[in-house]
Specification:
Length: about 500
Amino acid sequence: MQLYKTQNLIVYNSLTSTKEPFQPINEGHVGMYVCGPTVYSNVHLGNCRTFMSFDMIFRYLRHLGYKVRYVRNITDAGHLEDDLDEGEDKIAKKARLEQIEPMEVVQRYTVDFHNILQKFNFLPPSIEPTATGHIIEQIEIIKDILDKGYAYEINGSVYFDVKKFNEAFEYGKLSGRKLEDMISNTRELTAQDEKKSPQDFALWKKAEPQHIMRWPSPWGDGFPGWHLECTAMSTKYLGERFDIHGGGMDLKFPHHECEIAQAEASNGQAPVKYWLHANMLTLNGKKMAKSTGNNILPDEIFSGDNTILSKAFSPSVVRFFMMQAHYTSILDLSNEALLASEKGYQRLMEAVNDLNKLNTDSTSDFDVKAWKQKCYDAMNDDFNTPILIANLFEGVKHINLIKEGKEKISSEDLRLLNESMTGFVFDVLGLENKNDSGKDMEKLTGVVDLLIKLRNEARANKDFGTSDKIRDQLAALGIQLKDSKEGTTFSMSG
Ligand code: AMP
Ligand code: ZN
């Protein structure tokens, strides 16, 4: 029997602001859509946190026995610099600055995105569609919305008529905003504005002659508005109504609000049963963002090549750090927090490794069944990974007591403990028991420090042949030495 039949999952639905029992539209099947990255620069750790939250959710739903179709798109067109339809297309701008094709920008950063996610041990989504691969579907939705009277065309662009929509449906239900308040809080339209109202948003934008990303449409050459691609791709692959839509909190408005409006205007029904929003990763108390430069790239953490952290941290340690916070809470990145996570991760892995070495007895002092259910209860309560981890450490405590001979465990309970521990640690949290982390990293740091010392001695003795050899051979291994007034430091690539 599938686990979901006995485990009662509850999720926090941003649409109703309450925790609700999770009951998929079609029993045993889950359709989940998550807004993917805009591929115009390297993903930073903040982006990774949101995607990791949904990777964990995907993993747990599968663990419960659901057949999940997980769609996470790639935004490769239509996302303008200003989320409110103004400025240049982010990808086109990057292409212009670097004098390369927009699709070269897309390819470069899509590859980077996949590389990073692989390092973090993400499961691939079931479908990863792109906005540019679904222009026809987007045009069809625009035609439909125009036919139904919730959009208007002007000078080759098509805008969604928010006021008209609000008369028949309700605009603002996800973000809790009222259209009247939005209207009184926004600037007046200027003469250049084509929109009837500042709340209206673009479904299709006319491409000016210099705009390189353009497609033919019934309204002339142009490109789709950012919100439309997600409506087109979620409807195509998951249907007009599906179970879960996810993304970062910052996408609630306007992006997700507009997605709801587009789908309701076109299909007449609310597209999503449960809206799940992941909270932000902050650095120095401020949101990590590409635009402000307040961010750190995953590779800078794995290599130690950054000015924020005292050392390198492995992907599994960073993943463990992320999982120690609930996905709806803000999480702040700091050196201290990562150091603490590294210790915790090592303790957990040592205990997992010890599981195969424990002696068994005829009886148990540890109620494994009750403990296992406590782990499920944590995850069933809106994927509460910090409580799950606290329970896993309760398991670690017993493993250590059994190892020291201070507690007993039966072979049947040990089998159950082993299965549950590894199930939660590897399958649900997605951690890896890799040697490149923690202790091995410390050993490597020790060895490189020793070589730096030998190189300094060689240089003091004017033995430049030896000192250069050390530097070059380390560089060939991907370890770069940097000399400064304060001394020599190193960073690693690859
Ligand atoms: P973008 O590539 O800017 O479209 O963002 C991709 C995803 O990353 C979206 O779901 C955002 O909500 C999310 N995101 C952006 N910044 C952060 C952050 N600092 N913490 C967590 N998620 C973020
Ligand atoms: Zn989206």
